[in-house]
Design a protein that fits this description.
By secondary structure, the chain is an alpha/beta fold. It contains five helices and three strands. The chain has one domain.
């Protein structure tokens, strides 16, 4: 990912936000942010993606990324909505239940990300 970011920057691709697939190690998150912000790109941010992974793995990635200055948020879709939508379609739950489950899971992910930022002094930019 680091090499790709640098190659794209060298080719004049300059996003304000880089979407980064989930990373297991803080060191890898730091390397990605360093690449995204190299050569004066101090206002560039990164967001972590869920990759359709299971709930536990997404929680780990959110916690890891949130603790690294430069990770500014996340984009987790399927992990939030897939099972509730499948269950609704199969008429196992109502639309209202599906909406509540999706919203609840998303709020949990927000809380995980925000708490990891608060609990890690290095997360202060």
């Amino acid at each position: 990912m680091v090499q790709t970011i640098m190659e794209l920057q060298d080719a004049q691709v300059e996003p304000d936000v880089w979407k980064i697939e989930g990373l297991d190690r803080r060191e890898d998150c730091e390397k990605v942010v360093a690449a995204a912000r190299r050569r004066g790109r101090d206002n560039v941010g990164c967001i972590i993606l869920g990759r359709g992974e299971n709930d536990q793995k997404v929680r780990e990635w959110l916690t890891t990324a949130a603790a690294v200055p430069g990770f500014i948020g996340f984009a987790v879709g399927r992990t939030s909505f897939w099972n509730p939508l499948i269950n609704m379609r199969a008429k196992q739950i109502t639309r209202q239940d599906a909406v509540a489950q999706i919203a609840g899971r998303y709020r949990e992910f927000v809380s995980i990300f925000e708490n990891a930022r608060i609990e890690t002094p290095a997360a202060v930019s």
